[in-house]
Design goal:
The protein is α+β, with helices and mostly antiparallel strands. The protein contains 27 helices and 31 strands. About 40% of the residues lie in helices and about 20% in strands. The two termini are about 15 Å apart. Bound molecules: arginine (ARG) and zinc ion (ZN). Zinc ion binds near residues 302 and 321. The site of arginine has 14 residues, from β20 and α2. Keywords: Aminopeptidase, Hydrolase, Metal-binding, Metalloprotease, Protease, Zinc. Its cofactor is Zn(2+). Aminopeptidase N is involved in the degradation of intracellular peptides generated by protein breakdown during normal growth as well as in response to nutrient starvation. InterPro entries: Aminopeptidase_N-like_N, Aminopeptidase_N-like_N_sf, PepN_Ig-like_sf, Peptidase_M1, Peptidase_M1_dom, Peptidase_M1_pepN, Peptidase_M1_pepN_C, Peptidase_M1_pepN_C_sf.
Length: about 900
């Protein structure tokens, strides 16, 4: 059943107070709720409307209205709701439901992960706990009591502050928590388990002391320091940059092993996938450290952007997610290298969100309709949503943006609001009109921005002719022009920025400016130029568009070497590599030999020699565009050609630059004590990028060096990089030895074993599918653990182009079988796994047929979940 934004109506009733008591047992749980309900007086209604509560997979044991037990017949229950007729405008409802958390494999609602009870209620999981008005605009004060066996579950947690605790007979105990802030049910959380606590404290700007706690299973005690440090930095940063202070006296994080997503911002009690909390240099890579920092910050920032001000309905999801991703990205940029962070995010967006926006599931940042909301926790809502907020930040300026967010938080504190309310606050605080800008929220698809330059030597004027368009997406054939902030500069023949003065402006604009492209076609003319400039466009990726400008390869070489803007230097390097690789795909298809463009080699050579550049930047620039990105850019992707071209180019680069790479690698490959500092991470990044190149056609010395790094590394980043290099090498013996040794050493560490699975699943050498199938039988693999599914099956289907897209369709068949199995166990994970098959239009007709056949096979399945049904049916439409 499709739900539409246009059908939104306020609820008929509010719930002022919610009192919950959970009795947890091994084979069931009882949930007693007492709700103080009140008619919504703002909604004109003649008679008292029936009360319809959401509820799924519940066994209803009792119902009482104002302390009067109701008999069957006084209320109606179906698979999705409980309805009854209130007799007054204000009343109390008491319910008892029975659920079976131990059998909850969907990991939504109350479930068991290992030995602990935990919850995941966003978006609509609370209705699997008890009957409720499970919608974000119903905000209520919660008091929660948890009762469980004391020996097995010594720690009992819920939202807010602990207010009472005690013992019951038969070894059971209880704790009561009270959350003073009204919240929607999706922010409810409960944890019961045998957990250890890592504790610290934070003094807020106004001098309040906050008790900070991270709860983990005992064996993970030593892996929490980085998350705790990240939390304290996030709290300080939100005070300094947004003026947001924490509001409860206690803030808790709990790590669980079985979790559908990254983490969840439940009020005062964040629940995390252990992969986003635990980090120790022995077990986690530098990338994992950065991810922990970012996710801890993200969930913490939700306390304001999401919890204090929440969403009116799920169509507004990007109100909290887009804004919070923007906030965590800026936090990470402030804590680490700003340019590198931006490069990582843009790389991810272009390879993945652009593909989503060009496929059958394309939807606006604020969708108009959905069947299953879980399917809309997407790259578009999150990542493109963050780009939309970033553009608003650009258009308001940092100060104006802060004025706008201050107004937003002040105006809407304690409310459930819309994306329009957010934009309105920015408009009102700045006296701006964003009505056209708001098309970014309602129109799907990635806009094209085609720019041409025109130089008039006689007048010293240079014009940028801008043309924008946006391809049709499902349900949207025509698009109106967007507001595209185009950050740019003009460079002279030395690479210096030239002063910018637009003919249409009275004042000059300095050396860099943001042009607002608002029309389908628009011309910007600069004057007073002494020579023909080369434009540096879309600096910092100032808008999520596909930019084209008729640069020659020599222009790109020039920009890659001279653009004063670090991001655009990287971009020029990428664009040059893309251009070269696309050229080579054509050459391969024409049956001619593949030769690397000398200019790319020379750019790389100069990068390797440039010791003034941040090594992390050099590493980013030496990284060829991914196969996934080349697929996204292609009209019809030639799987074999893309893989062959990328591998050949890597080899050409490795051979042509062997001595330069070796020299730089030797400088970096010195034994040093482990450090988590940014500079040390940057050195590891470049060193290991070079190791990857140097292991191509490596001799015995290099192989020995790689094995040595694998064995002797004092951190997981180096160890894993060596493992990746070995697994992708032809040295069968060394490879098998390393894999065996790694599994032996780390078998007790599930997150490290995830890496072990992924390294093998993404290896592009022949036989990938057979290896993945064999790994499914490995004792460390478990289809019920989402991290394992992502590490093995997800990594194979998304990051192993030639393996997954095997010409005989066996990769597709394998994935469809896993989707069918998971459909019964965990529909959200099944649905997410379907993504690679939805991209079938990108491939040749034989592969299209094979992919569609698997989609149709899934579609015909009896008992198909709404999650999988929505994605598959839209892909076949
Ligand atoms: N609000 C969470 C976050 O982005 C995501 C949780 C969504 N979970 C889900 N199963 N849909 O931080
Ligand atoms: Zn979020």
């Amino acid at each position: 059943k499709t739900i539409y934004l246009k059908d939104y109506q306020q609820p008929d009733y509010w719930i002022d107070e919610t009192h919950l008591t959970f009795e947890l047992f091994e084979d069931h749980a009882l949930v007693h709720s007492r709700l103080a309900l009140r008619l919504n007086a703002d909604k004109p209604q003649k008679t008292l409307p029936p009360l319809v509560l959401d509820g799924q997979q519940l066994q209803l044991l009792s119902v009482a209205l104002d302390d009067q037990s109701l008999a069957e017949g006084d209320y109606q229950v179906d698979t999705h709701s409980l309805s009854l007729q209130p007799t007054g405008a204000q009343f109390e409802l008491a319910l008892t439901t029975r659920i079976e958390p131990q059998n909850n494999t969907a990991l939504e609602g109350l479930y068991k992960s290992g030995g602990m009870f935990c919850t995941q209620c966003e978006a609509e999981g609370f209705r699997k706990i008890t009957y409720y008005l499970d919608r974000p605009d119903v905000m209520s004060r919660f008091t929660t009591t948890v009762i469980a066996d004391k020996g097995d579950y010594p720690v009992l947690l819920s939202n807010g502050n602990p207010i009472a605790a005690g013992e019951h007979e038969a070894g059971r105990h209880w704790a009561t928590w009270e959350d003073p802030f009204p919240k929607p049910a999706y922010l409810f959380a409960l944890v019961a388990g045998d957990l250890v606590l890592i504790q610290d404290s934070f003094t807020t700007v106004s001098g309040r002391e906050i008790d900070l706690r991270i709860y983990v299973e005992p064996e993970n005690r030593e892996q929490c320091g980085h998350a705790m440090d990240s939390l304290k930095r996030s709290m300080r940063w939100d005070e300094q940059v947004y003026g947001r202070e924490y509001d409860l006296d206690i803030f808790m994080i709990v790590a669980v092993n079985d979790f559908n997503m990254g983490a969840m911002e439940n009020k005062g009690l964040n629940i995390f996938n252990s992969s986003c909390v635990l980090a120790h240099p022995d077990t986690a890579t530098d990338l994992a450290f950065q991810r922990v920092e970012a996710v801890v910050a993200h969930e913490y920032f939700h306390n304001w952007s999401g919890n204090r001000v929440t969403c009116r309905d799920w169509f507004q999801l990007s109100l909290k997610e887009g804004f919070t991703v923007f906030r965590d990205a800026e936090f990470s940029a402030d804590m680490n290298s700003r340019t590198v962070k931006r490069i990582e995010d843009v790389t991810f967006l272009r390879a993945n969100q652009f593909a989503e926006d060009a496929g059958p599931m394309a939807h606006p940042v604020r969708p108009d309709s959905f069947i299953e909301i879980s399917n809309f926790y997407t790259l578009t809502v999150y990542e493109k949503g963050a780009e939309v907020v970033r553009m608003l930040h650009t258009l308001c300026g940092a100060e104006g943006f802060r004025k706008g967010t201050d107004l937003y938080f002040e105006r809407h504190d304690g409310q459930a609001v819309t994306c329009d309310d957010f934009v309105k606050a920015l408009e009102d605080a700045n006296g701006l009109d964003f009505s056209q800008f708001k098309r970014w929220y309602s129109q799907a698809g990635t806009p094209r921005l085609e720019v041409h330059g025109h130089w008039d030597a006689a007048t010293g004027q240079f014009s940028l002719l801008c043309k924008q368009s946006c391809p049709p997406t499902p349900g949207q054939s025509e698009k109106l022009p967007f507001v595209i902030p185009l950050r740019m500069a003009l460079l002279d023949s030395e690479g210096q920025e030239m002063p910018l003065k637009l003919v249409s402006d009275s004042a000059a604009r300095g050396n860099e400016t943001v042009l607002a492209v608002t029309e389908a076609e628009q011309v910007f003319t600069f004057e007073g130029l002494t020579e023909e400039p080369l434009p540096s466009l879309l600096r910092g990726f100032s808008a999520p568009v596909k930019l084209s400008y008729p640069y020659s390869r020599d222009d790109r070489v020039f920009l890659a070497k001279h653009d004063p803007d670090g991001f655009n230097r990287w971009e020029a390097c990428q664009a040059l590599a893309v251009d070269v690789m696309q050229g080579l795909v054509g050459i391969h298809q024409a049956g001619r030999p593949l030769l690397a463009d000398q200019r790319l080699i020379e750019v790389y050579r100069s990068l390797l020699a440039d010791e003034t550049l941040d090594p992390a930047m050099v590493a980013e620039m030496l990284r060829l565009p991914s196969e996934a990105y080349l697929v996204e850019l292609a009209e019809v992707a030639d799987v074999e050609a893309i893989h062959l071209v990328r591998e050949t180019l890597r080899r050409e680069l490795a051979l042509a630059l062997r001595s330069e790479m070796l020299m730089r690698w030797r400088q970096l490959n010195i034994a040093e004590p482990y450090s988590a500092e940014a500079a040390a991470m940057a050195r590891r990044s470049l060193k290991n990028t070079l190791l990857g190149y140097l292991m191509i056609e490596a001799g015995d010395d290099m192989l020995a060096a790689c094995v040595r790094q694998f064995v002797e590394a004092n951190n997981m980043t180096d160890r894993q990089a060596a493992l990746v290099a070995l697994v992708n090498s032809p040295f069968e013996e060394a490879k098998q030895a390393a894999l065996a040794q790694f599994a032996e050493r780390w078998q007790g560490y599930p997150l490290v074993m995830d890496q072990w699975f992924s390294v093998q699943a993404t290896c592009g050498l022949p036989g990938a599918l057979e290896r993945v199938e064999a790994l499914m039988q490995h004792p460390a693999f478990n289809l019920r653990n989402p991290n394992k599914v992502r590490a093995l099956i997800g990594a194979f289907a998304n990051q192993n182009l030639v393996g997954f897209h095997r010409a005989d369709g066996a990769g597709y068949r394998f994935l469809a079988e896993r989707i069918i199995e998971l459909n019964a166990l965990n529909p959200q994970i099944a649905s997410r796994l379907t993504t690679p098959l939805t991209r079938w239009r990108k491939f040749d007709s034989a592969r299209q047929g094979l992919m569609r056949a698997e989609l149709e096979r899934i579609m015909a399945l009896e008992g198909l979940s709404p999650d999988v049904y929505e994605v598959v049916s839209k892909s076949l439409a």
